[in-house]
Amino acid sequence: MVRRLVLISMSIKNVIGALRCELGVDPATVRFVRPEDGDAFADLWRPGPGMSFDFDMHLFVAPEDELSKNELLAILEGRGDAQRSAPMLGAD
Predict the structure, then answer these.
(1) Do the domain assignments include residue 91?
(2) Distance (Å, whole) CA 25 – CA 18
(3) Which of 10, 16, 49, 82 is surrounded by the most beta carbons within 10 Å?
(4) Distance (Å, rounded) from C-alpha 35 to C-alpha 92?
């Protein structure tokens, strides 16, 4: 459990760093972290002593709910336009 909390903490710090960069902080001054061991995330899902879990969840997307590549791009481009027109936080 402690290892999971450490990775959650790293992830939260990385999200905060990304937000700082979005708000204009020089990315060269923002510290991003990741585990030294590339298998750290996979290791967390391996059962340990006294642990058992079963993730038997399946997600299905009905064909009528699927968007085309062009529809997705239009949505994402619209979000970018909205972000560019939104006022910066803390800018006076």
Answers:
(1) no
(2) 9
(3) 10
(4) 38
Give burial (CB, 10 Å; 0-12/13-18/19+) of 60: exposed
Give the Å distances, CA to CA, from 21 to 15, 27, 35, 47, 62. 10, 6, 21, 37, 37
Task: Give the tens place of pLDDT for each residue, 32-82.
Answer: 888 877 777 777 767 666 555 556 666 666 666 677 888 888 888 887 665
Answer yes or no: pTM beyond 0.85: no
Domain with 31, as residue range(s), is 2-49+57-85
Number of domains into which the chain is organized:
1
